[in-house]
Amino acid sequence: MLLEYVFYKFYRSSQIFDSDDIPEWKAVLFLSLIHLLNFIVVFVETPLRKILRELTEVTYFEEKVKIVVIYGILVFFNYHLFVKDKKYITIEKKFKNESKKNKIIGTIFVTSYVIFSNVIIFLTAKK
After folding, report:
1. Which residues contact 7 (CB under 8 A, 6 or more apart)?
2. What is the rounded CA–CA span in Å between residue 93 and residue 100?
3. Gap between the Cα atoms of 60 and 23, Å rounded
4. Residue range 30-45, pLDDT digits in tens
5. For residue 8, with 0-12 CB atoms within 10 Å meaning exposed, 13-18 middle and 19 or more buried, which class applies?
6. Torsion, CA 57, CA 63, CA 49, CA 42, rounded to 10
7. Quick check: 6 and 113 in contact, CB under 8 A?
8. Exposed (0-12), middle (13-18) or buried (19+): which is 86, by Cβ within 10 Å?
9. Residues 6+ positions from 79 with CB-CB distance below 8 Å
10. Residues contacting residue 33 through CB under 8 Å, at least 6 positions apart
11. Which residues are within 8 A (CB) of 4 and not within 5 positions of it... i.e. 6 or more apart?
């Protein structure tokens, strides 16, 4: 449910700020990007990174290719969770009539999640 709400907020933002006809795809791509940042923090920018590098001898290019592949996998899963069979319409109906108070709280929550996901990657990055 929480993930659906985050998707819904990205979806609505895409509808409000851009008149394009594919807000569901923009929401999926942005959500996948945020998930990728979270994935990098957990699995790449931690002590686990050193262990993985020692075990696999990965080059810089190979590491970037892996990140692109992981992003593609995240997009694939998010597509199936939110876009396939027009599930985003059901999600929109579910959250469309939330109260003004809940909209404000939800916007603050989702904005904080996006900011935190961006800041934490810089805080954990190797210097």
Report:
1. 27, 28, 31, 78, 81, 82, 88, 91
2. 16
3. 34
4. 999 999 999 888 776 5
5. buried
6. -160
7. yes
8. exposed
9. 28
10. 71
11. 82, 91, 94, 95
Q: Which two three-digit tokens encode residue 115?
A: 């900011």
Quote the pTM value: 0.83
DSSP state of 97: T
Structure tokens at 79: 């597509």
Going from the C-alpha of 35 to that of each of 53, 66, 72, 77, 120, the distances in angstroms are 22, 15, 11, 11, 13
pLDDT in tens, 68-89: 899 999 999 999 999 999 999 9
How is 20-40 classified by DSSP, letter by letter? -S-HHHHHHHHHHHHHHHHHH
**Nearest residue to 64 via CA among 91, 85, 36:** 36
